[in-house]
Amino acid sequence: MSRLQVLIACSDSEQRAALMNVLALCDLQPMIAANLSEVRRALERGSVDLAFCEDRLPGGGFREALRMIKATGSNVPLVVSSPLGELDQYLEAMQLGAFDFVAPPYRRAEVESIVNSVRQDYLSKGTEGTRLNVQAEAVSRNEAAA
Question: I need a labelling partner for 126 at 20 to 30 A (CA). Which of 26, 119, 138, 143 fits?
Fold first, then answer.
């Protein structure tokens, strides 16, 4: 099974580098988007399995990214990242359909937990329209052939 393609939508270079380092330790393939236009292009290409998105980006933030995900029908789980980590923002993100919420500094155990939840939730449901679904089908075929 190929590594998950994780989009990091973050305009702050230090926060982006910190999350990239943690994702690399988790054996994930990070992709970078510094603004909302780059997020849109990545989603349209269909190459995203999971997205981490800042609360604020040039051109918008996680709210607009969630709208884009719904508009493309890609079902990409989105994790909102905010250095503030405010309860109100967490609740809003979850109500709007975010998969999870994380505040820097990024800890490997926390990111691994989120990734494992994504794999379990999306692979077990066979969510259509995502690369995760294709990977789940490949695993199922390989298990059946064994």
Answer: 26
